[in-house]
Amino acid sequence: MKRIVFPALLLTALTGCMKEAALPTPQLPAATQTGQQTAGCRVDGQLWVPAGGGLFAPNPISVTLRRDGTRRHLSVLLDRNPATDDGLPNPNTLIQLYVPNVSGPGVFALDQPADPRLTNSNPAYAAFWYTAPSPDQLLITGPTATGQLTITRLDTVARVVAGTFQFRSREQAGPATVHVTDGRFDLTY
């Protein structure tokens, strides 16, 4: 019995003395332009970064630059659906940025009525989605909830798109609003 109890007590004492590894404090990524696959912002003043839902979950960052004749449409989806609680607010949310007819770097106003269900007929817009609990709650930019998206790099050879954004979005059929600031992305597509 002593042969079993002593090693068990020793192991318990040693593990109690080890310091708990400190997790790195989440931060807003730097505003870079080299295709680092980073993005983030502040939502109502709180840090928000994309996070995936586990091993078989889709990538939390998705970029599409789609051609429609001579026009290019840019769509950026940033998903925050962490597999475990990372301590940050606003899990199960998604940010969508859309710019039609983009040809290079520039500043795009997010101030026109839009409907994300329509594909080619929308003006530039930003949307904030609460994806849980179901059904989804959509808050979108428009005439009474505006913003700005600045594309600082659009490189179709290196396939890199980078920029900054800020916006206020409003629920279309309700009073809810979200204020997104300090947004940045540096992505490959």
From TrEMBL:
Keywords associated with the record: Lipoprotein, Signal
Would you indicate the residue range of the signal peptide? 1-21
Give the top-rank taxon of the lineage listed in the UniProt record for this protein. Answer: Bacteria
PROSITE patterns found in the cross-reference section: PROKAR_LIPOPROTEIN
Protein name as catalogued: Lipoprotein
Origin species, per record, is Hymenobacter endophyticus
